[in-house]
Write a structure and sequence with these properties.
The complex is a heterodimer of chains A (438) and B (373). By secondary structure, chain A is an alpha/beta fold. Chain A has 15 helices and 13 strands. The longest helix of chain A is centred in the N-terminal third of the chain and has 16 residues. The termini of chain A are far apart. With 373 residues, chain B is of the alpha/beta class. In chain B, 37% of the residues lie in helices and 22% in strands. Chain B contains 12 helices and 16 strands. The chains are: A alpha/beta (438), B alpha/beta (373).
Chain lengths: 438, 373
């Protein structure tokens, strides 16, 4: 195959820069693999390694510092047939560390070439994630305080499918890169090299020192690529193929009559675990089954299974604008946590409003009519009190009718969950009766 | 007619699918998480991709890569995530990458209150990028809007090749509402305009009279260059001040002109009204209720609900304010969009009412403001 180098844009690196040798080695890699430019995407980021994409006749994506793997992942997920090669310096490695780690864990079929020259060349030779402690760099004493990172050991532990180190001057470099690009998973090649513009001005290292440095590193445990690891994009498609598309949203026909013309504003006050939000949803569904517009505005803290849970519900023949409630028609109080959130609203309750509270849950003085319901005595447990409260309202044709509640349960629940919910409702509607009809 | 019951976030997800979205990536954050949940349910079974990034930076990065490979993409977060998106947003603006970004606003500053609503990011969405070039921001009022504006957002992202934000709010996104989906007025879906065949492909070259370059996906038979660096039409770095200036001005113009041509809004004029009330987002619902109640008392107030927030629909606002003596702007923040209204209506009395405590502004509060306006 012909070279993929761009003859109009020859490399512009400092004389003696390792990057230039790697550009040529990468081109030989593409040639050896018989790749054409339209099958390859070079993804690069900021710094000297970020010039790579301009030297090649391939697809190119040059983005932000350390984020090249994120773009490469998006490209690969849409076009798994492409060879996606990412170049990154030791700077990008450091700032994009979370992406390196996560890409290893995903084992997505990308190739990451780390052009590791131990410093930030473009900005003045500051220390990077790989700068040795003993090096003299543009960050004063700071590099002496930080441990240099061995990206290969990190990549191994994190799950990359292919991990290798190489010197820029290694005769095997093309062969290693070829295996990396061919590997069907995430491959990382840590290529150590020289930055004559910055690093070697104060640190006397040459090719022999690079080789010696590599030999001093602990050997990699998995020299051979691990083919057993699953490649992300392939596995993703296999998993997705097993999924059935969800049904479209239920279209609820208005087949019942509402209990009255008036707009209903209901507030459910409870605590986490009392299924307040589910009861609110049921009330909305009941309204929809009677052709009413409904809104449900919830308030609960970020904690799960602890704290208040408040649901404000509006049922109206007219479209609902403002979703807050100041003058409710009914309030259901099932836990002190909920009551504490709405003390002002309860104190200011209109005279014709109903305040339904579970026995034992204290409510403040109010002008509305107050009704206590002993759910425990009815054999109903706290997580079902909100549902049971709807049944209490339905029994009196306040807010909703028993038929509307029945319709809501049929829309919301299936199987044994529906049976359990119906049995709670029956305990309220028909306390003396026998078994619920399924 | 039939109702579906859903929250705003689900409607945004369903709107995205309707618009042809095939790629979503996000990082969980209240109150935006249920968009991610919706996309995870809808996309993979239909051959699309929904991913969870290791952070917000990765999530939007996946989207930018996928968009350049030809997919229609969306991501969703809240204020803290928009902060992390910022550098990638600037990239998408400068490099003309279509993307829809949902900001389900919550009470800030910073991590603030995860489960409390606000409209505190309105100026941030416009100016939270380096370079200060324009973006499109749409603000839904209700669940039906969440559905329809998401389709509009995808269309505008394709038309302008730029980031388009949906400025939602916990109070719409996590509020359930009945909606007749079949009755929602949806625009026809716009597809990406391909670059002309034959001519040498210039990734940022525009045809005479056009503001937006034709698109080719990465991975096609013609090579595509994408770059975050200051570039010429060929996608290579340029330092030529004239070419740079031309490009920046085009980036500015393409967005302004597209929105100025057809801003999205709702207009409820009142006969003889001397006051114009301007609102957006969830506050527009309370504004509507307040204006109706005042009308019953015999006070006429006109209501302009803006759904295109950025670029500011300047002609529209001037036009609607022409016959009024004063303008009142209400927002769920301490005064952000009102600055734009004041800027484009010099000499007019423009007053403001805002609240930033996690609670909805009520019709009662707005009525009080309007009575004393």
């Amino acid at each position: 195959m012909p070279s993929l180098l761009n003859p109009d844009r020859p490399p512009v690196f400092c004389p003696g820069c390792s990057h230039e040798r790697i550009v040529k080695a990468l081109d030989r890699t593409f040639q050896a693999m018989g790749l054409s430019g339209d099958g390859v995407v070079l993804v690069s980021d900021i710094g000297c390694s970020g010039l790579f994409d301009t030297f090649f006749h391939t697809h190119a994506f040059h983005g932000l510092h350390g984020r090249a793997l994120t773009y490469a992942t998006g490209i690969k997920m849409v076009r798994p047939d492409l060879h996606v090669v990412v170049t990154m310096g030791d700077g990008g490695l450091g700032i994009g560390g979370a992406h390196v780690l996560s890409t290893c864990r995903r084992n997505i079929d990308l190739t990451l070439l780390v052009l590791n020259n131990f410093n930030y060349g473009m900005t003045g030779g500051q220390c990077s994630a790989t700068t040795p402690r003993e090096a003299q760099v543009g960050s004063g004493f700071l590099n002496r305080l930080e441990q240099p990172l061995d990206v290969c050991r990190l990549a191994e532990v994190a799950g990359a499918g292919f991990v290798a180190r190489a010197s820029t001057y290694d005769k095997e470099l093309v062969g290693i890169m070829e295996r990396a690009v061919a590997h069907p998973g995430f491959s990382v090649v840590d290529i150590h090299g020289i930055c004559p513009g910055r690093y070697t001005r104060r640190n006397r290292i040459g090719p022999a020192d690079i080789e010696a440095g590599l030999r001093r590193l602990p050997p990699l445990t998995e020299a051979a690529p691990d083919e057993r690891k699953t490649e992300y994009a392939t596995a993703y498609r296999e998993e997705a193929a097993r999924l059935a598309p969800p049904p479209p949203p239920a279209r609820i026909k208005a087949r019942l009559s509402p209990v009255g013309e008036a707009r209903q504003e209901i507030v459910l006050l409870g605590s986490a675990g009392q299924r307040i939000v589910t009861a609110g949803e049921l009330l909305c569904l009941a309204g929809a089954a009677a052709g009413l517009n409904a809104t449900q505005k919830n308030d609960y803290p970020i904690t799960v299974m602890r704290g208040h849970s408040v649901s404000e519900l509006i049922l109206s023949a007219e479209p609902v604008g403002y979703t807050g409630i100041r003058k409710p028609t009914a309030v259901v109080a099932l836990a002190p946590e909920g009551v504490a959130r709405k003390r002002g609203l309860l104190a200011d309750l209109p005279e014709d409003a109903l305040l339904l509270h579970a026995a034992g849950v204290e409510v403040p003085e109010t002008r509305g009519s107050v009704r206590s319901v002993d759910f425990r005595a009815m054999g109903i447990k706290s997580p079902d009190w909100a549902l049971a409260s709807l049944a209490v309202l339905a029994r009196e044709n306040r807010v909703l009718s028993p038929e509307m509640l029945q319709a809501a349960l049929e829309l919301r629940f299936r199987g044994t969950v529906r049976e359990a919910a119906l049995s709670v409702v029956h305990k309220v509607l028909d306390p003396e009766g026998g078994k619920p009809t399924p | 007619m039939s109702f579906s019951l859903m929250e705003g976030n689900e409607a945004i997800g369903r709107g995205a699918i309707r618009a042809g979205c095939s790629f979503f990536a996000g990082y969980p954050i209240t109150p935006a998480t249920t968009i991610y949940n919706t996309m995870l349910e809808l996309l993979p079974p239909s051959g699309g991709v929904c991913m969870q990034g290791e952070d917000e930076i990765a999530s939007i990065g996946f989207c930018l890569g996928a968009s350049m490979a030809g997919a229609k993409v969306m991501t969703a977060t809240s204020g803290p995530g928009i902060s992390l998106y910022s550098e990638q947003i600037s990239f998408a603006i400068g490099s003309e990458i279509p993307i829809v970004i949902v900001d389900v606003q919550r009470l800030g500053p910073s991590t603030g209150s995860a489960t409390k609503g606000a409209d505190g990011d309105i100026q941030f969405l416009r100016w939270g990028n380096s370079g200060g070039l324009p973006v499109v921001v749409l603000a839904p009022v209700d669940v039906a809007d969440c559905y329809a504006l998401t389709v509009h957002a995808f269309n505008l992202a394709e038309i302008c090749r730029c980031p388009v934000f949906i400025a939602a709010n916990k109070e719409i996104s996590m509020t359930r509402e009945t909606v007749d989906l079949d009755a929602v007025d949806l625009p026809p879906v716009v597809e990406r305009t391909p670059a002309p065949e034959g001519a040498p492909f210039l990734p940022f070259g525009t045809k005479p009279g056009r503001n937006v370059p034709g698109f080719l996906p990465i991975g096609g038979s013609r090579l595509v260059r994408q770059t975050s660096s200051t570039h010429g039409t060929d996608g290579y770095i340029t330092t030529d001040p004239e070419r740079i200036a031309q490009n920046q001005e085009r980036l500015m113009r393409k967005v302004s002109e597209a929105v100025d041509a057809a801003p999205l809004f709702d207009w409820r004029p009142a006969q003889g009204a001397e006051t114009l009330l301007i609102a957006y987002g969830v506050t527009a619902r309370a504004a509507g209720a307040a204006v109706r109640a005042l009308a019953q008392e015999g006070t006429a107030v006109s209501l302009l609900t803006l759904k295109s927030l950025w670029p500011v629909p300047e002609r529209l606002i001037r036009d609607k304010a022409r016959d009024c003596r004063r303008v009142v702007v209400v927002e769920m923040n301490l005064g952000q969009y009102v600055r734009e209204v004041q800027r484009i209506l010099p000499g007019m009395e423009v007053s403001f009412f805002g609240q930033m405590n996690g609670e909805l502004i009520s019709p009662h509060q707005i009525r009080k403001v309007l009575r004393h306006a």
